[in-house]
Specification:
Strand order of the largest sheet of chain A: 2-3-5
Helix content of chain B: 55-70%
Distance between the termini of chain A: 93 Å
Radius of gyration of chain B: 22 Å
CATH topology of the largest domain in chain A: Alpha-Beta Plaits
Number of domains of chain B: 2
Largest interface: A-B, 15 and 14 residues
Shape of chain B: globular
Largest sheet of chain A: 3 strands, antiparallel
Distance between the termini of chain B: 34 Å
CATH class of the largest domain in chain A: Alpha Beta
Number of domains of chain A: 2
Helix content of chain A: 10-25%
Structural class of chain A: alpha+beta
Shape of chain A: rod-shaped
Largest sheet of chain B: 2 strands, antiparallel
Number of helices of chain B: 14
Order of helices and strands of chain B: HHHHEEHHHHHHHHHH
Strand content of chain A: 25-35%
CATH architecture of the largest domain in chain A: 2-Layer Sandwich
Oligomer: heterodimer
Chain lengths: 151, 364
């Protein structure tokens, strides 16, 4: 008999404790981020979509060769007057070739970041862009050479 | 009762509408249709808004936001849901008993809607003024059980049938503590008329029935609240529609507008039991203060009393609805045997004891 009343009191009390816990969350700050308006700031070394600044590219074909899935296609022409670019460690470098086609098929990309590690001029880099969805496979092939240089 | 109503409308028509020369009985019918339409619309509105409120409250309790995209603060979400349900394919399973399958949602809905006929929404506002209001409510709300078992049986699906049978067992058991709570209130008030019961609680908070015989009526209110939660199949008593065990129970096979009717019936029912609880224990449309605020401010007009009374009624009922949602997202579901033992071993003896104690207290 004592146990019967005790269990009722304990049960009611535990319900009250539960209610207190849930109402605390009712008034607390919400964990939701309203995505299109608010976004997370990505960490510094986040590997998003591969992007390229073709004016810096010296056509060394490092990225083309090292890419495990061979998603980069690169075509170039020889420049009449060689240009100059700065390498990442601060030296000047001759730019003998101009890029006419720099194609990245992002649908194959495994985001390993190998292409960016060896690039002497830092032309190819991984951006923080992670919204890569699109409607067709052709849209996933990105062109990074400027339009004027394309044949 | 009907005669009194007709007389009241007759005098109203003679006073204010002398130009239109139609029989007064016609006025009564027209008036019934208008008010019935308002209540039906209001209930469907609550079906939608209740679902929205439920999702929103659930979100807030779980540190989320809930729907907030359609309309201001997501208020039009129920319209979008309704349009989706109307446009959906009207599916009837091959194994279903077609007539019963079609009939079930409406039976359930009518059972819910019938309760609203006897509720006093405010002073002077209500569809009927039944002498046997409480008895009528207890009787008409049993139609919901028939609707549920019709749906479960006619679906031709074992999970639906299981859900329906669980539901019937649960509702019939829990109707007993509810009946005893009603009996106690009838003892205290000396009437089954909902309007009179509300009138008897006028004055201020102290006169509400929940504080009439201090701890006993509070326990009675708790018993009624718990049992009514089981009546309308809310978590922690939602074993008839337990998603994880019997995939939705009796409304598994329903889609489109029929499913919407089940949904509206569920939320309408929830509002109905909360409204009954607020009328029986919390004074219905009576103000918690010794006076009505609007009357104090702008003078003694009946319209103002009615408006403020409706506000009080709605806020009390909605607070109880919120309590139900709050409990739903706090507690896990009972097992079937736990549910039955709670009803027969705890609620029933306690409500009987409360009735006995109040009876002796009244004799003293």
């Amino acid at each position: 008999m004592v146990n019967y009343f005790k269990s009722i009191v304990v049960g009611l009390w535990s319900v009250l404790v539960g209610l207190a816990i849930t109402i605390k969350y009712f008034f607390s700050k919400k964990a939701t981020m309203e995505y299109p308006e608010q976004r997370w700031t990505m960490p510094e070394r986040f590997r998003g979509m591969v992007k390229c600044d073709s004016n810096k590219c010296i056509s060394c074909l490092y990225c083309v060769n090292i890419c495990p899935v061979s998603l980069i296609t690169l075509e170039n022409v020889k420049l009449d007057v060689p240009g100059k670019v700065m390498t990442l460690d601060g030296k000047e470098m001759k730019r003998l070739k101009d890029v006419t086609k720099f194609e990245v098929d992002i649908s194959k990309c495994i985001f390993c970041g190998l292409c960016t590690e060896g690039c002497p001029t830092g032309a190819i880099y991984m951006s923080k862009d992670y919204e890569l969805a699109c409607y067709s496979r052709k849209d996933m092939v990105y062109q990074y050479a400027p339009d004027s240089q394309r044949p | 009762m009907l005669k009194e109503y007709i007389d009241a409308i007759k005098s109203f028509a003679e006073q204010y509408l002398p130009v239109i020369n139609v029989p007064v009985e016609l006025w009564y019918i027209v008036w019934l249709f208008i008010f019935g339409g308002i209540v039906l619309g209001g209930m469907m509105m609550f079906g939608g808004l209740g679902a929205y409120m439920e999702r929103r409250v659930a979100g807030f309790l779980q540190s989320r936001l809930g729907p907030n995209r359609v309309g201001p603060q997501g208020l039009l979400q129920f319209m979008a849901d309704g349009i989706k349900l109307v446009l959906k394919e009207d599916l009837i399973p091959a194994a279903a008993d077609k007539i019963l399958f079609r009939l079930a949602p409406y039976v359930l809905f009518i059972g819910t809607l019938g309760v609203f006929a006897a509720l006093p929404f405010s002073k002077y506002v209500g569809i009927t003024n039944l002498n046997l209001g409480l008895l009528y409510i207890l009787a008409i709300s049993s139609l919901v059980v028939i609707g549920i078992i019709m749906a479960g049986w006619s679906s031709g699906n074992k999970w639906s049938l299981l859900g329906a049978m669980r539901s019937v067992a649960q509702i019939i058991s829990y109707e007993i503590p509810i009946g005893i709570c009603f009996l106690t209130i009838i003892m205290m008030a000396g009437t089954m008329n909902m309007n009179t019961i509300t009138d008897l609680q006028s004055g201020s908070v102290i006169n509400w029935y929940i504080f009439r015989y201090p701890p006993i009526t509070l326990i009675l209110f708790l018993i009624y609240f718990i049992a009514s939660m089981a009546e309308v199949n809310r978590t922690p008593f939602d074993i008839p529609e337990a998603e994880s065990e019997i995939v939705g129970g009796y409304h598994t096979e329903y889609s489109g507008m029929r499913f919407a009717f089940f949904y509206m019936g569920e939320y309408g029912n929830m509002f109905a039991v909360c409204a009954i609880a607020s009328i029986l224990f919390l004074g219905g449309w009576q103000s918690p203060l010794p006076f009505f605020i609007l009357n104090e401010l702008f003078g003694d007009y009946a319209v103002l009393t009615a408006i403020e009374g409706f506000g009080w009624f709605l806020s009390k009922a909605m607070f109880l609805v919120f309590m139900m949602m709050w409990l739903r997202w706090t507690l896990p579901r009972y097992r079937v045997d736990q549910l039955m033992s709670l009803c027969w071993k705890v609620l029933l003896p306690f409500s009987l004891a409360c009735m006995l104690i109040i009876g002796f207290w009244m004799l003293k």
